[in-house]
Write a structure and sequence with these properties.
Elements lengths: L4 H4 L7 H15 L1 H10 L4 H8 L2 H8 L2 H21 L1 H23 L3 H8 L5 H29 L3 H13 L4 H5 L4 H18 L29
Helix pairs in contact: 2-10, 2-12, 3-12, 6-7, 6-9, 6-10, 7-9, 8-9, 9-10
């Protein structure tokens, strides 16, 4: 491939603006239910939320919070850099894009098993409970890893996966049990279903490689039969 190392790692200018906006919007569509639930339960009005979002003091407080920096900046950037930007360019030539998408997240999921060691070390729960928690965490981190790998391959950019990762860290896993007990649960659950349906409908159109500079550098490494993921 004639692409530079940085381009293969998703660090390039061509198609950068769509790569920043479209994958994040797509992820927000998937979280439509939790976002509506959050808006309904939030004591602030819409204008109050806008004022907070544009307040420099609010962002100064966030940037001074080590936990916020870890969850919203450091972890998303470093994990996507390692497991997507560094790992996928090595996997795609050997396995092809489709297999790489489902292989890469296995390493990503295993990398989160250190939480199990912490729980066992400090005896925060029963062994069976910790094991079930670990299986659940591995499952959803692997699924999320497959999604961001898909975004990386389709867009050829690191920015999209990092922003989606940061957003998902902020939102957390959807609180379905809370949604089922919500006073307006029919409305909330309807938006949950609508979000999933719209996400499935928009997944390929909003990640069309032609928006991001087709063919994307990462897909130029594919030595297997070209498939729909790269076109």
């Amino acid at each position: 491939s004639g692409a530079s190392l940085l381009a293969l790692m998703g660090i390039r200018f061509e198609g950068l603006i769509p790569a920043i906006i479209l994958p994040l919007v797509l992820t927000m569509v998937l979280f439509l239910g939790p976002l509506i639930q959050l808006a309904m339960d939030c004591p602030w009005g819409f204008l109050d939320g806008i004022k907070v979002a544009v307040d420099p003091w609010f962002w100064a407080l966030c940037l001074s919070d080590m936990r916020w920096l870890r969850n919203q900046v450091v972890a998303p950037f470093t994990e996507e850099l390692v497991f997507r930007a560094c790992m996928l360019p090595m996997l795609v030539p050997c396995a092809g894009p489709s297999r790489a998408i489902f292989t890469c997240p296995l390493f990503f999921g295993v990398a989160h098993f250190h939480h199990v060691i912490e729980l066992l070390r400090f005896r925060q729960g029963t062994i069976s409970g910790i094991f079930l928690s670990a299986v659940f965490q591995f499952s959803y981190t692997a699924v999320f890893g497959a999604y961001t790998a898909f975004i990386f391959l389709r867009t050829g950019h690191l920015a999209g996966p990092v922003l989606c990762h940061s957003f998902c860290n902020y939102m957390g896993f959807p609180a379905l049990s809370t949604a089922l007990e919500h006073p307006h649960r029919l409305i909330v659950l309807s938006f949950y279903v609508l979000g999933v349906l719209l996400f499935l409908l928009l997944l390929f159109p909003m990640t069309d490689p032609h928006f991001y500079g087709w063919p994307t550098p990462i897909c130029s490494l594919d030595s297997t039969q070209p498939g729909s993921l790269c076109s």
